[in-house]
Amino acid sequence: MDDEYITIEIPEWKRIKKCPFCGTNAAFKGVKTYFKPGVKIECPKCHVGTSRIITGRYMFYKGKKDVTFTMEQAINEAADIWNNRVLEDEEEYETISIKVRDSNG
Ligand SMILES: [Zn+2]
User: Measured in angstroms, how far is the CA atom of residue 49 from the centroid of ligand 1?
Assistant: First the structure.
């Protein structure tokens, strides 16, 4: 299923790492899946990214029962997933802007 892109607002400054493959600055992307908004982080060049973190209630998420994601929590979760790679150098981080607009959306 193709992603439908939506505009999301990043509520605070988020530090995310550069793409592990090409070094390009990654970006938050607002997505919509089955009418629910969500977010993922993706490299605009080689399109590797996190899976979509969709807002709403989950029976199970990462071994926890009954987890609910607001958009802000989904953004934090996507950032954690994207940043949680083995990269040795702090300089791999880039600070990205507060607001993200998607040209596709
Ligand atoms: Zn890349």
Answer: 9
Segment 31-77, tens digit of pLDDT: 998 889 999 999 999 999 999 999 999 999 989 999 999 999 999 99
Output the pTM of the full model.
0.76
Q: What are the Cα distances from residue 101, in Å, to 28, 39, 84? A: 9, 12, 24
| Ligand 1 midpoint to CA 35 (Å) | 28
Distance 21 CA to ligand 1 centre (A): 5
Asked whether the beta carbons of 80 and 73 are under 8 A apart, the reply is no
Q: Which two tokens stand for residue 98?
A: 């507060």
